[in-house]
Amino acid sequence: MLDSGCRSNDRPAANSSDPEPGVSLSLATQRAQAIEGLRYELSFTIPADPTQPISGHAVIRFGTNDINRSVVLDFSPGADHLKSVSVAGRQSQYRLVKDHIIIPKEEIASEDNSIDIDFRAGDASLNRNPDFMYTLFVPARAHLAFPCFDQPNLKARFALELDLPSSWQAVSNGIESFHETKDDRLRIRYSETQRISTYLFAFAAGKFQIESAEREGRWYRMFHRETDAKKVERNKKAVFDLHASSLKWLEDYTGIPYRFGKFDFVLIPSFQFGGMEHPGSIFYNASSILLDESATENQFLNRATVIAHETSHMWFGDLVTMQWFNDVWMKEVFANFMAAKIVNPAFPKVNHDLRFLVAHYPAAYAVDRTAGTHPIRQELANLDEAGSLYGAIIYEKAPIVMRQLERILGPDKLKEGLRVYLKEFQFSNATWLDLIKILDERTDLDLAGWSRAWVEEAGRPQVRTLLEGDHIGFTQADPQEGRSLRWTQHMDVLIGSGNAVRTIPVDIQSERAELKIPADMSKRDWILPTGGGLAYGDFMLDDSTRGFLLQHLPELKDPLTRGAAWVTLWEEVMDRRVSASDFVDLSMRALPQENTEQNIQLMLSYVTDAFWTFLPESRRAELAPRLEEILRSGLDRASSSTTKATYFAAFRSMVTTPAGVGFLERVWRRQEKIPGLTLAEPDEAGMALDLAVRSVPAAGAILDEQRGRFMNPDRQARFEFVMPALSDRRETRDKWFDSLKDVKNRRREPWVLEGLQYLHHPLRAAESEKYIRPSLDLLIEIQRTGDIFFPSRWTNATLGGHNTRSAADVVRAFLAEHREYPIRLRRIILQASDDLFRVAHAEGVRGN
Ligand SMILES: [Zn+2]
Q1: Ligand 1 centroid distance, CA of 194 (Å)
Q2: What 8-state DSSP symbol labels residue 148?
Q3: 749-759 and 730-739 are packed helices; what angle lies between their axes, rounded to 10 degrees?
Q4: pLDDT digits (tens, 9 = 90+) for 370-396
Q5: How far apart are CA 486 and CA 768, in angstroms?
Q6: Please, which residues have CB less than 5 A from ligand 1, an ion?
Q7: How far does residue 616's CA lie from ligand 1's centre (Å)?
Q8: How far apart are alpha carbons 305 and 236 in whole angstroms?
Q9: DSSP classification of residue 287
Q10: Is the pLDDT of residue 1 over 60?
Q11: What angle do CA 485, 487, 493 make, to 5 degrees?
Q12: How far apart are the C-alpha atoms of 743 and 740, rounded to whole Å?
């Protein structure tokens, strides 16, 4: 229990040489150079009641080559959580500053330092629930719970002891070495781990069931809380098989056996991520591992992928770890890359190239075309900002770049280089540049130059197609003035003539590349440099190809070519070489003929954007009846439930005609059914909100009735939170928005975002414009108090519904007034307002 007696050493002192809050790069660099042989012995006493404190004890042992400097530990919970600190058995004259405990240099020796700390654990990263708890320390949240050096490049051995209610189970990175039940308490000790980073140290404890299985001489254990025994039975064999086959594949590929001893994994209800790669103890979101009988092929593919992804991290991320979180993208990109190699062959019916295209290119372009884009590799001054690194450039652009790298090197050389890299840096840390150096020795190409353009700088090349007699030329230019970057890349250029299509590989390295037109293609109809689904950039089509696609795109035979053509044509819309109206017309002609689910999803998402943001209101009204008819017939025609769900979501999002809204209302009232589509509670709640934002006459009654329909109390609470944002009374909406200024009302971020999206719905945009400025004014505080994705989602939800010049002016004025604004937040605003600026600019050009 917490000792609340007085302590002599907890005055925060203002000393100019004190470390800044968080974990700064300079502190981390200094410590990584000085500290050696780091070991932690940690113990936690965990009560069953999640409101009762967890007490902890830490022994931190290390040597240092810098005895002229005090030692700075990271610990956030503050003075009332710290009971005693002693060094080498003597009480320490430590000082406490924000986020740190400073041990005076006089108490530190060059070898065998041992710091003993009694503390109460901070709960912020311990995810405490009534029957279970689990740690989640990525990216630097271990020091929110216990004192440590919380940086990825101070790897340490962790020994752990847990004192738990006797009915609980527990799992951690290490092997259980001691287990004793006494009265109503259980004590478990885990043997020391290999050297791992703090963000990878983990344990989970609580009422779990354990399944185990042996595969090729290795035992695997699955911890879970599923009550449906049949569901567990149905899934477990496949889940163990997938882990075992991923592990074997990785051992073969890397040439390095699995190095973390035992292999357990924990299925956690409503886990924050899909999975987290703690060595020896992977955590997963339970619902993506234990699938229902109705699971689609996509869900099976996703499950295999997440298992392969986390298992890949045992080598990429866990064995070799980034020096600093600026390179966090590397472990993610390699885990994805390996997962695709491991899993895809087992799903031969899926068009994996198309899936890759649809999953990565549109999202990467949506950021990379904006003034707020940034390099894959970003600078990071302090780990407390690590959250803002994550986004489409890391998750979607980086995989595209990695695929290019494999094309350039060839799969064998890449594998060879990765083996050297893993071997050289195992149980240690490395940077992207360390890897590039290894790979550079294996190619004639200037890989450092390649990396500069693709990884260390922001943006994408502008590529033009030029028709020159019997040649086709491709030129590239850097859109950013004064930089003159050249992006080396491999393109599969497609040329079409009548029914014939030829794929011609072209490498572009300098300003220009060209290809000779094959004799049988002299009467070509179209040239698509992106056609093979590989090339990345802002592509300007030649006029005849553009004209051809606007007529005949739906007739292209190959689904990947069609997907690539849609992506390229949308970029032409963004650059105003194709009108949004023509794009929507073409899509409406194409949808009835398209039978590939991936392409239907792609087109519907572009059409939704075009409809609400890029079409003038008059054109919207003109198009609506036919568009709704097409969406409804797509809904009838679709053969899979996922395609039906895609069409229905698009319909709900774009419906505006009285007939269409009437249909939606009948479905919500359960007077009409959609054959083959089961609508669950969240769908009905969404429909009720969609009807309300369209101001149907019965809006108020519909919301009230929906509130009474809920079986699930969490969903009901969320609905009640969002309701006022849809009120037909302006004062109610004002009050709801004002309430968000209090952090307490922003805690449930998904609820806030849903409300904001309806508040700023395009149909309500004129009335909600006044909320833009105060929302931007709050952004710094949102970043300070919110979770990692909240600032960008908050900004997107605020600006996504607007498309007028006056809304754009509000954002411009804000940016102009805040020239010294934090750069990452500025980028977030520039990303979120990009569409708005494009439309407003077009309006200006049209002279309205
Ligand atoms: Zn990952």
Answers
A1: 20
A2: B
A3: 150
A4: 999 999 999 899 998 887 788 899 989
A5: 43
A6: 332, 335
A7: 41
A8: 16
A9: G
A10: no
A11: 145
A12: 7
Distance 310 CA to ligand 1 centre (A): 6
Query: What pLDDT does 843 receive?
Result: 66
The DSSP result for 793-818, as a single string, is HHHHHHHTT---HHHHHHHHHHHHH-
74 pLDDT band, cuts 50/70/90, is very high
Question: What distance in angstroms lies between residue 316's CA and the mean position of ligand 1's atoms?
Answer: 9
| Strand pairing class (462-468; 538-540) | parallel
Looking at residue 762, the DSSP 8-state letter turns out to be G
CB 814 within 8 A of CB 776: yes
CA 336 to ligand 1 center in whole angstroms: 7
Give distance in angstroms: CA of 403 to centre of ligand 1.
17
Model confidence at 15, pLDDT cuts 50, 70, 90, reads low
Tokens of 689: 């909100």
Q: How many CB atoms lie within 10 A of CB 247?
A: 23
What is the 244 CA–ligand 1 centroid distance (Å)?
18
- Residue 255 phi/psi, 5-degree rounding, is 70, 15
Please, what is the Cα angle at 751 between 749 and 755, to 5 degrees?
115
Measured in Å, residue 796 CA sits from the centre of ligand 1 at: 24
Assigned token pair, 49:
């009641």
Residues 697 and 692: their CA atoms lie apart, in Å, by 9
Question: Using CA atoms, how far apart are residues 474 and 516, in angstroms rounded to an integer?
Answer: 12
Distance, CA 56 to ligand 1 centroid (Å)? 29
Distance 265 CA to ligand 1 centre (A): 15
Q: Distance between terminal CA atoms of the chain?
A: 69
Give the integer Cα–Cα distance in Å for 687 and 667: 9
Q: Using CA atoms, how far apart are residues 240 and 514, in angstroms rounded to an integer?
A: 50
390 to 48, 453, 800: CA distances (angstroms): 35, 20, 20
pLDDT in tens, 193-226: 999 999 999 999 999 999 999 999 999 999 999 9
